[in-house]
Amino acid sequence: MDGAGELRLMVRIIAPLILPMLSALGIFTFMNSWNNYLWPLIILNDESKMTVPLALVYFNGTHMVNYNVVMSAAVLITLPVIVVFLIFQKQFIKGLTMTGMK
């Protein structure tokens, strides 16, 4: 790339090479923050500020569990993670294969 400046090298060469790895890292980070359970359980005491996976615990009753409601809530909790993965699936797989992990 004779005559190309720093910005052009970054946009044309470096960005396409690191995009799959950044998307894989972004999916892992999103899944980690979405599924965070233990830290909000310890810190939060107000039910209106609890995370979605933590709110799933409150679907359980004292003497009975309505499994239909619990399972449908679990599917709704998992849906955003699946959608994010499906959107970035190509970059995710490419990012994993480019790291050299076996």
Summarize the structure.
This is ABC transporter permease subunit. The chain has 102 residues and is an all-alpha fold.
Number of helices: 5
Structural class computed from helices and strand pairing: mainly alpha
* Amino-to-carboxy terminus distance: 33 Å
Helix content: 55-70%
The overall average pLDDT, rounded, is 80
C-alpha geometry:
elongated
> Would you report the number of β strands?
0
Please state roughly what percent of the residues sit in beta strands, choosing from under 5%, 5-15%, 15-25%, 25-35%, 35-45% or over 45%.
under 5%
What is the radius of gyration? 20 Å
- The ordered string of helix (H) and strand (E) elements is HHHHH
Low confidence ranges: none
Largest β-sheet summary: none
What does this structure look like?
- The chain is elongated and about 75 Å long.
- The chain has helices at 6-34, 38-43, 52-55, 67-87, 89-98.
- The protein is mostly helical and 102 residues long.
- The two termini are 33 Å apart.
- The longest helix has 29 residues, at 6-34.
- α1 (6-34) packs across α5.
List the helices and strands and how they pair.
Elements: H1 6-34, H2 38-43, H3 52-55, H4 67-87, H5 89-98
Protein name: ABC transporter permease subunit
Membrane topology: Multi-pass membrane protein
Family: Belongs to the binding-protein-dependent transport system permease family.
